[in-house]
Protein: 7-cyano-7-deazaguanine synthase
Organism: Paremcibacter congregatus
Amino acid sequence: MTEKKKAVVLLSGGLDSTTCVAIAKAEGFEVYGLSFDYGQRHTIELDAAARVAETMGLAKHVIAKIDLRVFGGSALTADIDVPKGRDEDHMGDDIPVTYVPARNTIFLSFALAFAETQGANDIFIGVNALDFSGYPDCRPDYIAAYQKMANLATRSGVEGAKTESSLTIHTPLIDLTKADIVRTGLSLGVDYSITTSCYDPLPDGTSCGQCDACHLRLKGFREAGERDPVAYKNDLDR
Amino acid sequence: MTEKKKAVVLLSGGLDSTTCVAIAKAEGFEVYGLSFDYGQRHTIELDAAARVAETMGLAKHVIAKIDLRVFGGSALTADIDVPKGRDEDHMGDDIPVTYVPARNTIFLSFALAFAETQGANDIFIGVNALDFSGYPDCRPDYIAAYQKMANLATRSGVEGAKTESSLTIHTPLIDLTKADIVRTGLSLGVDYSITTSCYDPLPDGTSCGQCDACHLRLKGFREAGERDPVAYKNDLDR
């Protein structure tokens, strides 16, 4: 019996990253989940990440603590109101206020360190097409440039180093719509009731149903012809 | 009077990064220092970084706390003995045990976030030629790949974004010997007595004089025909 290949999966506990876990497992990887406690206003997503790690049988789940608040500059880490009630057509107009400076660059850098210490050559990140317009660090050319840099950064990039293998950054959701993602996850048996996507949940974890993340998620389930199993405020019409 | 250009300088409080601060200032930049509390065994270097920030009049000095110990894997963050008494010829044979996985990738990622929130388009990092053989993430092709990735990662990389300027990563020490660095710093008025380079200092900050970092530093001063002003254990012959 050969040892399973290891993959680090960036795990926020939301729809996309949880689907990434299912895809990595379906591709035969032993999954090492990496979540961040980065001073986000709600730790509800870390609870969701821990539920996903437990339920989906991850080999290891690490929560790395980083404090992006020392730099300021985003709704997810500072005291700026999360925008509500925008429809999808208006989300891509600007870089969202929920943008965290250099977030994916920082997250992938930690994933790189984790992968190196675990002997993993694969990293999964759940960026997807809907994010392109708003978040610069979700685009395919950014991911490709990151992978190139990463392969120069680590031991395996050094001539004569023992490790010959190179690092691959997987973005299995990059061309999928939210409906595609929901369908993919459900076909792989994902239980989306343990996930959370809301930017502004109630203290008990109930999703607001009004922020951009809730809108996209609900639309995804609707278009997939499925019902989102998480609880929403006002038990809104789905 | 025009506003000064801003630069983020990665500041460990050692010889190289302190010289970088002096070079950035000499090039007309207002300097934003960024240090890391990354679970290193000695916080003596953070004290040195704070002294440098104060003495050299930085616009701002931020210490970002990150915990690389969750991943394991290095003498600087774990309980592995720091190698002693190696001469320079043997330092490049292997990747040093003082290697921190993905360290510069993580440090530069935070620098990118800091630069973005401060409106800086320039980052200085004190990597230099002597580090090439041992540390993969000190090589010029790595830095070039990082810069390319960084320019795709941030708002300025987005078509139609307000910020037109692009990010430059400066490595002014990259081709210098330690003696060159000492000469450059002294010519710019750097007071090296406030810096520290030792991997394994005494509790009072006295350098051990025996680790790789001490060896390189002492050799640099010796070859520059100068005396290193920091205190060494046993007041060793310099």
User: Anything to note?
Assistant: Strands of chain B lie at 5-10, 29-37, 60-65, 122-124, 168-170. The radius of gyration of chain B is 18 Å.
